[in-house]
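for the recovery benchmark. tokens below, seq after
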């Protein structure tokens, strides 16, 4: 299938002008990162890491000053647990005191600290603190680097997958991480939808089909009900209908339980508490992942960890049964998201064609068994790549957004997963009324992304719209997403009233973006200006509550901008909408501010710059080292027959030997603290002594060839001249046109003589030069001079034969020829004569 996709995309991409159309897709999981690059001319596939692996561990770490990624970073945990960061996704936007942070602490031994935003950050052993956005930003930057190596150019635009249940807080954090990494967010895509796109890429659906994408990942299990329908025009519509999820189950939780088994076993066997040893626990974490993978295919696994702690080698046998027993409380949760998704979609299981498995944890037998039992084995479909379907789908989605590719025509409509509502404070308008907060559902779960809704509010003063989740969307996360302050209301309403508007109102447009973000996208004061304004006045003045949402309390769907009063505009050229000022306040979990992102970005840049400098220094040091060895070999010529010895003088070799010895001593003492420029300077100093000698024997080798070349052109030119002059004479005798004039041949002869004289003089000089002296003439100059001669010769040699339509002789003999015909001929000849000298240029 991969091949097919490759063909599809690359063929289509070929039709597109080769504008820079590179799109990167990242499937960011809490255990693994998968990435894919979409670029015309580059095979569409999953990006490989430097070890040619198709997936990269979601880890970053430091070994002293060296930053590591992927498996290298994860492996550090067993030696430097404080400096290896994995599962960071679990901490995104999590309030410091939330269960998400406690859970992270139960699986990781990293030190967690609180940020000024109230979220969690991680502390390295050197005391520096890193937010999850920064750590993930580094991982994204690492992937960006791999993609750029592959693409051979800068890569900027990225689509990143997120679980459908991710809140706005978490989505904001991902977008911040992308920005910190130096990438640009093209879109976020829910991973279930991404798998659906991948599924539709190679299939057509003449009849509508419903499928469930069942995604068991590390940090959650989610199910997405999706319909597919291909219309007559060939467009496939993908529509998400419902999502179910459970954040308390997934691969990470199974790892945790398995590690508990190992830890208990260790403690029982060795009468010590392994849980007190960070390195030991980190080693057992890695081992738990390994054992889990073995237990996916076997009933038992032997666990064997050398020197897990206190120099104890730990060996035990774990059975699949033991893991399943330890996870018995989870069993009922595995299939639940499917049923929740069906309820949200308003569908029943028998309407579903298949349950498509994706995500690494679908390999775990107890999860497979639970789902098979719940939906029936015949419904299970294993025909997408569990690891790569999401990233490939995200890449195709990104390609469709960039409009630079012609991919299969797919229209994706996704939905939001959490109920969203809007609330605002209504002040008392009469002495008897009480102020109150009015709440309206705005985007209930299941609302299509890309929707807009407009609220009509009778307000006369500035006020705030609060956007909230109806319920706590993640344990310990707030419900308030953001607050939007609308200002200039009083003045705008007054201006409208003055213009003759009756009971002007405020209209606020709320938007649910394709990437799942809610915002107030626009707000205006709006009033209808009518000529019979006086009559209508007072109609609304009795209403006791002026702050209620307008007549239709439920917000209206917006098909088009509803605020332009087109009809009125014809009669009255008075504008009847006035834009209001909007200011967003984050009162709960704020995304990073521009300033914070700038700081983070420069922190990352500084690390990159350090690493680049370090690499350059390493390279300079290695090159110098290699050069020293090479020189030692050159000098080490006891027989005295090597070209280096033959082409050098005793004094020169002595000077090099002295310099070499000094440099070696310096390397020994100073190399570890020296700067890049010192390595470079040292090399230059040696090269200055060595280069002329090497040059001598390179020249010696090249000389015969160069001389042969010079002589060859000398010889060819001479041959040509003899021949050409002879022909010229003959042709002149016959009154025929010639290719060349005498002057032209004379000029060539002059060039030839110059070349010959130079050659004779300098070849003579070169003869007296000793092998260990610098050459008198350089072969480059010999070749350059021969070239001059060659070009001069070629120009004449390649000239086409002159036109000989009518021979002059014939014309002279044909006495009867008419006068004007003769004249015409003479003109032609004159022209030819004129043209000839021009050709010389
Ligand atoms: C109201 O009208 C005044 C005078 O034309 C103008 O200066 C002001 O900007 C207007 N205010 C708003 C909010 O449109
Ligand atoms: C010079 O070039 C000719 C023709 O290419 C070749 O036959 C001859 O061996 C060459 N002589 C030397 C010294 O390279
Ligand atoms: C150039 O060619 C001429 C004629 O072939 C020859 O007499 C002369 O020695 C050549 N000169 C050199 C420097 O090769
Ligand atoms: C001289 O004339 C002969 C006969 O036409 C021709 O083959 C030869 O190529 C000519 N020589 C040059 C240098 O043009």
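predicted aa per position
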């Amino acid at each position: 299938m991969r091949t097919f996709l490759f063909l599809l995309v690359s063929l289509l991409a070929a039709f597109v002008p080769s504008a820079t159309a590179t799109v990167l897709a990242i499937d960011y999981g809490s255990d693994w990162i998968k990435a894919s690059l979409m670029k015309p001319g580059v095979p569409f596939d999953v990006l490989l890491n430097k070890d040619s692996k198709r997936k990269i561990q979601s880890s970053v770490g430091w070994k002293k000053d060296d930053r590591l990624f992927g498996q290298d970073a994860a492996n550090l945990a067993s030696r430097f647990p404080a400096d290896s960061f994995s599962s960071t996704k679990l901490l995104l936007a999590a309030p410091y005191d939330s269960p998400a942070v406690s859970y992270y602490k139960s699986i990781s031994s990293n030190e967690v600290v609180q940020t000024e935003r109230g979220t969690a950050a991680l502390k390295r052993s050197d005391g520096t603190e890193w937010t999850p956005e920064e750590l993930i930003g580094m991982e994204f930057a690492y992937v960006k680097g791999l993609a750029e190596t592959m693409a051979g150019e800068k890569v900027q635009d990225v689509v990143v997958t997120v679980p459908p249940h991710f809140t706005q807080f978490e989505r904001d954090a991902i977008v911040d991480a992308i920005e910190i990494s130096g990438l640009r967010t093209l879109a976020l895509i829910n991973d279930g939808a991404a798998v659906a796109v991948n599924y539709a890429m190679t299939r057509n659906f003449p009849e509508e089909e419903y499928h469930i994408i069942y995604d068991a990942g590390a940090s959650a299990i989610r199910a997405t009900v999706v319909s597919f329908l291909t219309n007559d025009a060939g467009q496939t519509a993908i529509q998400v209908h419902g999502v179910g999820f459970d954040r308390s189950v997934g691969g990470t939780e199974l790892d945790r339980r398995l590690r508990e088994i190992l830890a208990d076993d260790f403690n029982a066997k060795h009468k010590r508490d392994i849980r007190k040893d960070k390195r030991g626990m980190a080693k057992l974490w890695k081992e738990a992942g390994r054992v889990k993978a073995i237990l996916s295919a076997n009933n038992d696994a032997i666990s064997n960890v050398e020197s897990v702690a206190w120099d104890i080698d730990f060996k035990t046998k774990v059975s699949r049964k033991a893991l399943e027993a330890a996870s018995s409380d989870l069993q009922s949760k595995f299939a639940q998201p499917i049923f929740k998704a069906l309820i949200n979609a308003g569908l029943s299981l028998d309407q579903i064609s298949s349950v498509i498995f994706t995500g690494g944890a679908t390999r775990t037998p107890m999860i497979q068994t639970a789902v098979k039992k719940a939906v029936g084995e015949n419904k299970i479909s294993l025909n997408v790549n569990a690891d790569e379907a999401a990233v490939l789908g995200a890449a195709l989605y990104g390609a469709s957004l960039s409009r630079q590719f012609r991919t299969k025509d797919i229209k994706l409509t996704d939905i939001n997963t959490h109920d969203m509502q809007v609330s605002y404070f209504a002040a008392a308008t009469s002495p008897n009324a009480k102020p109150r907060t009015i709440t309206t559902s705005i985007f209930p779960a299941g609302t299509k992304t890309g929707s807009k809704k407009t609220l009509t509010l009778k307000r006369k003063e500035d006020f705030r719209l609060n956007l909230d989740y109806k319920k706590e969307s993640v344990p310990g996360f707030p419900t308030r997403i953001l607050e939007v302050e609308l200002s200039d209301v009083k003045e705008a309403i007054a201006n409208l009233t003055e213009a003759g508007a009756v009971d002007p109102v405020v209209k606020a447009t709320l938007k649910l973006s394709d990437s799942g973000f809610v915002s107030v996208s626009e707000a205006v004061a709006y009033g209808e200006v009518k000529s019979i304004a006086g009559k209508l006045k007072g109609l609304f003045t009795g209403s006791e509550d002026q702050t209620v949402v307008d007549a239709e309390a439920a917000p209206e769907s917006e098909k088009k901008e509803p605020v332009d009063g087109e009809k009125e505009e014809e009669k009255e050229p008075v504008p009847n909408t006035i834009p209001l000022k909007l200011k967003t306040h984050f009162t709960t979990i704020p995304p990073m501010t521009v300033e914070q992102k700038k700081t983070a970005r420069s922190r990352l840049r500084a690390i990159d710059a350090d690493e680049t400098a370090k690499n350059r220094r390493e390279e300079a040091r290695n090159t110098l080292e290699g050069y020293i060895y090479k020189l030692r070999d050159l000098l080490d010529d006891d027989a005295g027959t090597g070209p280096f010895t033959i082409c050098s003088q005793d004094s020169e070799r002595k000077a090099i030997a002295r310099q070499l010895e000094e440099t070696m001593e310096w390397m020994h003492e100073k190399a570890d603290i020296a700067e890049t420029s010192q390595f470079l300077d040292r090399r230059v100093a040696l090269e200055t002594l060595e280069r002329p000698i090497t040059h001598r024997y390179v020249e010696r080798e090249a000389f015969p060839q160069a001389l042969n070349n010079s002589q060859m052109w000398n010889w060819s030119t001479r041959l040509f001249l003899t021949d050409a002059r002879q022909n010229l004479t003959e042709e002149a005798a016959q009154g025929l046109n010639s290719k060349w004039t005498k002057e032209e041949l004379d000029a060539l002869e002059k060039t030839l003589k110059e070349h010959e004289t130079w050659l004779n003089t300098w070849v003579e000089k070169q003869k007296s030069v000793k092998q260990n002296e610098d050459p008198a003439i350089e072969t480059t100059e010999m070749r350059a001079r021969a070239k001059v001669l060659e070009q001069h010769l070629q120009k004449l040699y390649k000239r086409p034969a002159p036109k000989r339509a009518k021979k002059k002789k014939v014309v002279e003999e044909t006495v009867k020829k008419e006068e004007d015909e003769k004249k015409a001929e003479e003109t032609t000849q004159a022209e030819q004569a004129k043209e000839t000298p021009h050709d010389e240029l």
